[in-house]
Amino acid sequence: MKIAVGLSGGVDSAVAAWILKREGHEVIAMFMQNWHNTTGTLYGDCQWEDDLNIAELVARKLKIPFEFVDLSAEYSKRVVDYMFAEYEKGRTPNPDILCNREIKFDAFIKAAENLGAEYVATGHYCRCESIQVEGSSTYRLLAGVDKNKDQSYFLCQLSQQQLSKAIFPIGGLLKPEVRQIAAEHKLPNAERKDSQGICFVGKVDLPVFLQQKLEAKQGNAIEISSEFYEQLSGCSTDDYRLQSKPYHYTANDGKKIGTHNGAHFYTIGQRRGLNIGGHVEPLFVIGNDISTNTLYLGEGRNHPGLFRKALFIASDEIHWIRPDLALSTGENRSFSVRIRYRQPLQKATLTMQSEGLYLVFDEAQRGITAGQFAAWYIDEELVGSGVIYE
Fold first, then answer.
1. 235 catalytically annotated
2. Architecture of 2-209 per CATH?
3. For the chain, what percent of residues have pLDDT higher than 70?
4. Which residue has the higher pLDDT, 205 or 84?
5. How far apart are CA 126 and CA 143, in angstroms?
6. Catalytic entry in 46, 99, 156, 235
7. Active site residue 199
8. pTM for this structure?
9. Looking at domain 307-387, which of 2.40.30.10, 1.10.1270.20, 3.30.540.10, 3.90.226.10 is its CATH number?
C-alpha cells in the first residue's frame, strides 16, 4: 500500500514511519506547516523550522520521499477562527480536537491523495479496526495500549469515512518501546522531548495570543464563598435537565476582591494568571459572565462551585463515531465518559432528548467547561462525543 505519514519532527511519527516501511509499504513522509504567526508563542519563531529540519533528517534516514505541504490557510480558517469565536463567547474550545477533524484527517488526507496515497498514518497512541455490521465495514476507534499516553480522546470527532483512511502504527506500543525502537535504529529524534501546547502553534501565552483578535478590558473579580452554596442546598433536584445547568452568579452573590483584563481569557478551573493574593488556599475560576465582563472565583481545590453532576450537549453538536450505536430520542444508556484528556473514565448515564443529549455522572465532576468535548466509551472503544453546551 502507498501510505503518507504525517512526520511532525517528533519521535512517535518517526517510529510510525519506520514500522510501515519495515512492513513493506510504499511510504511517503509529509510535513504540514499550519501556522506562521508567532504572536504569543513562548519558544520564538523558529520552532516549526526545527520540526521541519528533524522531519527531513528522519525521512533521509529511512530513505523515503519527503514532501512539504502548507495547510496554513485551512488551519487559520477552520481551527484558529473557531478558537477565537469560542473564546469570545466565554467558552473554552479544544483546538487539538478540531485540528484532527479538520486538518490532519481532512485537508491532509486530500493532500496525500493528490500524491497517490491510499491511506494516511500518524503517531497517535490509539488503534483502529474494522468489523462487519449488517454486511458493511464499520470502523472502531480504540484506546491505545499505553493507558498513560492514550490519545483516542483527541480523535473523538472523526467520522467513519476518516477512520477508513487512517492507520495508527504505534497504537499497540508503550511509549518506552517507541523510544527504544527509535534509539536502536538511530533515528535523529530518538531522545527529543514531546511537543506541548496548541496543535501546530505550540506553547503560548494564551491572553497575548487571543489579544490578536479579542480586546483586553478590565472587569471585576468576585469571590463566591463556600457558604453561599448552603443557601442552595434545599434546591437540589433529580431532574437531569436542571442538574445540567451551571449556576449563573451575579455580583451580589459575593464580594469584589480584584480585577482582571477580560473574562473571555479565563476558563473554568483555571488557577494561574489571576494575580490576586490574600488567601490561605489558591483561587480558582468557577464562572465567567461575558455580558458584564465579570469573573467569579472560589477559594480551594474543593470549592463546591467547581463541581457539577451533569452536562448538556445540543443536538447539532452530537457526533457518533459509531452511528449504529447512537441513542434514539427518549433512550438512555450507561457509558464511560471523559471530559478532558488524561482524565480517568467516569461512569455516566446518557439520555437522548429532542433538544440534545444529557450526561449525568455517578459522581460530581470537577471543572465541566462549556466548549470542551465530552467523549463516551464502551470498554476501550470511543463511540461518540460532543461539545459541552454550558
1. no
2. 3-Layer(aba) Sandwich (3.40)
3. 92
4. 84
5. 5
6. 99
7. yes
8. 0.92
9. 2.40.30.10
